[in-house]
Amino acid sequence: MYHLRVFFTFFRNALIREMMFQGNFLIQIITRAFWFFAQVALFEIIFSKVPEINGWSQDQYFAFMATGMLINGIVETFFMPNCANLSEQIRTGRLDFVLVKPVDSQFLVSLERINLAMLSQVVLALGLLTRSLWRIGEPLSVLQVSAFLFYVALGVTFFYSMMIVTACSSIFLGRNQGLYDFWFYITVFARYPRSIYDGRDDSRFEAGEILQCGFSYVMPILLVVTVPARVIVNTLEQTHWAVVSVLAAAAGMLIARAVFRWSLNHYRSASS
Predict the structure, then answer these.
(1) What is the pLDDT of residues 208-265, one digit of tens each?
(2) Is 222 exposed, middle or buried (0-12, 13-18, 19+ CB in 10 A)?
(3) Quick one: which of 121, 37, 124, 10 has its CA closest to 74?
(4) Closest CA to 126 of 69, 193, 184
(5) Which helix (H) or strand (E) holds 57?
(6) Average pLDDT, stretch 34-45?
(7) What DSSP letter does each residue of 106-153 carry, written as one string?
């Protein structure tokens, strides 16, 4: 409950900060809305030429797209601003004040800043998901919706784990913009369903199959969005991917926690 009260304080501070610069807040919302509708329009054009994309119908694919936007929206609302700010805290010595506060340091580092404008993407994603499921027309069970929310939470957890591990490198490098770019380049693969990378010829081990294997078992980015999307449209046939998602999220959090603590042990304060 103490951490929850602290979180609501962060949320209130973020709201006050956004209201101080209402023009900037409005521009961010308009920009995200433009990007959202541009993505939808692009795939509307694509599906006007083809009936499906590797087993995904138009409405199923839009449900997948909405799931990915929902996960990314949550990550970019709560975690991205803080992880991007960690290197600045280290450079200026403000991380010293974080470490002496009577709250878990990783909690403060991860949630101190909240980008409320990104919540517009969450709202738009939920709207697209609702529209897609309504057009599909299949009834949803409570278990199905609960499983979807569970795997969305796992996706957020996995992305957060990757982000905090990347941010911790700032303690050693001082600045890690190149690693942040690497994070964006890697996570772009999650924008497309896992089946997109299937090889056309089973006798050849094509580049798509290499990516599919590596990003399903070594770094299971392809499962982050695909699993919850297939759960909500009721097309998850290979249930072992759901198990891999759970294990990946759990392992990611353990690794992130261990890396964060290990990095702090090598941190030298601004006064040292």
Answers:
(1) 677 777 777 778 888 888 999 999 998 887 788 889 999 999 999 999 999 999 988 8
(2) buried
(3) 121
(4) 69
(5) strand 56-57
(6) 92
(7) HHHHHHS---GGGHHHHHHHHHHHHHHHHHH-----HHHHHHHHHHHH
pLDDT of residue 203: 47
Residues in the chain: 272
* Rounded Cα distance, 93 and 236, in Å: 48
Read off the pLDDT band of 180 (50, 70, 90): low
Please answer whether residues 35 and 94 qualify as being in contact, where contact means their C-beta atoms are separated by less than 8 angstroms: no
pLDDT of 132 higher than 80: yes
Helix axes 142-168, 221-232, angle to 10 degrees: 160
Tokens 């101190």 appear where?
112
pTM value is: 0.88
184 residue type, one letter: F
- 3-class DSSP assignment, residue 53: strand
